[in-house]
Amino acid sequence: MNIPSKKECFKLIKKMDMMDHIIDHSIMVSNVSLFLCAKLKVSSPNLDTQLATSAALLHDITKTRSFDTKESHSETGGQMLTKMGYPEVGDIIRQHVILDSYKNNSPISEQEIVNYSDKRILHDKIVSLNKRLEYIKIRYGSNKEFKDRIQIMWENTIILENKLFGQLDITPNQLSECVTKEIKKEA
């Protein structure tokens, strides 16, 4: 499996001229992914932390240009990384908005961790799932089709949250405090 290093991720971020606030968001998604991988490795030892954190850093790699092109940044970001020789990273990026499947009885995957981590970061802050999804509704729920898709995504993300935190010794409400402590330890 080919996974870009953190340094390679930041080179690609620079090359794609990502907006600063999207970079800040991506760094926080990566921080949450790192924390969740570390905690979930106890029950899911096959989780690949580097895969999850690299995909998290790059999950919005084509978002800046999507404001002009109106492309689906999850699709084009996934395609870009796949073409660059990182198919596993590309697959996670492709699924960071909506997972291909939501299965409660399957092992926890890197796709689920990045998808969930993204749903907990509003701009560059860890917020409750409800706060983030309310923002998504306001920002992207402009027509009935999008509102319906957001509602399904919301329901599935609550199921995902229960799956993840059913394996953890913390609650979703403690995530922000715990990740913040880990970031401070690293600094």
Fold and architecture overview:
The chain is mainly α and 187 residues long. It has a single domain, classed as Hypothetical protein af1432 (Orthogonal Bundle), CATH 1.10.3210. It has ten helices and two strands; from the N terminus they run H-H-H-H-H-H-H-E-E-H-H-H. The chain has helices at residues 6-15, 20-40, 49-58, 63-69, 73-83, 87-94, 110-119, 129-140, 144-165, 175-186, and strands spanning 121-122, 125-126. Strands 1-2 form a two-stranded antiparallel sheet. Strand 1 (121-122) and strand 2 (125-126) form a beta hairpin. Helix 2 runs antiparallel to helix 3 and helix 3 crosses helix 6 (87-94). The chain is globular, with a radius of gyration of 15 Å. The mean pLDDT is 94.
Give the overall shape: globular
Number of helices: 10
In N-to-C order, the SSE pattern is HHHHHHHEEHHH
Looking at CATH, which topology would you report?
Answer: Hypothetical protein af1432
Distance between the termini: 30 Å
Which stretches of 5+ consecutive residues score pLDDT under 50? none
Major sheet description: 2 strands, antiparallel
Number of strands: 2
CATH top level label: Mainly Alpha
CA radius of gyration is 15 Å
- The overall pLDDT, averaged over residues, is 94
CATH 2nd-level architecture: Orthogonal Bundle
Number of separate structural domains: 1
What percent of residues adopt helix (DSSP H or I)?
55-70%
Helix/strand class? mainly alpha
